[in-house]
Fold this protein.
Amino acid sequence: MSLLLTLAPLSSGVRADSNLTHRRAHRRPVPRVVRLLGSVRGLRLPRARIVRWVDHSAHTVARYYGRFPASRVDVSVRRGYGRRVGAGRTHAGRRIVIRLGRRVSSHALDRDWVLVHELLHTTFPRLARRHRWMREGLATYLEPILRARAGDLSEREVWARFASGLPQGLPRRGDRGLDRTPSWGRVYWGGTLYWLLADMGIRRQTHGRRSLRDALRAIAAAGGNGRVVWPMARVLRVGDRATGTHVMSRLYRRMARSPHPVDLRALLLRLGVHRATRGRAFALDHTAPMARLRRAIVRGR
Ligand SMILES: [Zn+2]
């Protein structure tokens, strides 16, 4: 890898290969792609701790893409109450505003998912309003997977999130497909189901040689990030071409314009995700027919 590439603004600061960046960083200050802007006065934690949280979240996303797939993202903090990370919002794919409680703890930052979710919105093109499910679904699908890859969640926690959330994304009576049913459940969890099925479909059709990551990296490489608006047809074309399949476009046709019910219970059982006998806990069955696929989604390419 050339020195030039290492120091290019797009790839520095949040590179997957952080050793390389650190080794060369002393020669010239490395510009950060994702930066904390503005004051954090009034928070119990020092600014350095907040910066570390922003950097860690950015690395979590960059590791998946190979680099952070946007040119610059500013993060500003609004002060709230309590100890938690509050709501976040992404503006025009370049600015994230996120609320932190005055007494937010280091532990709450370690467990935070909101910033990774918002950062994921900066990595994918904006779309017409009716396709909102595609962007919210992508952020909801990838956030726990990427955090597991960063060592912040276990594989079981990822699937517990999916198993408890996905039922809210199933079509109800009167549903007219994801493009025409803008309910909360369909937007967030219906969108998550689209991406889970797409990831599974790509892996199965390519015998594990390709995954959703290839489609998303290709979209990002073609300039498709949160700063631009793309037509749906372009997203599907670039994504499918990168995987050598028609998985994304076919699934889009089925799920966007008709209800497309999915037997979620059967799907999760095949993946080896079981509700434990008591309570709300979930357990993983490593002998299930699609256990390898399930593991690859969280741990693989
Ligand atoms: Zn969102």
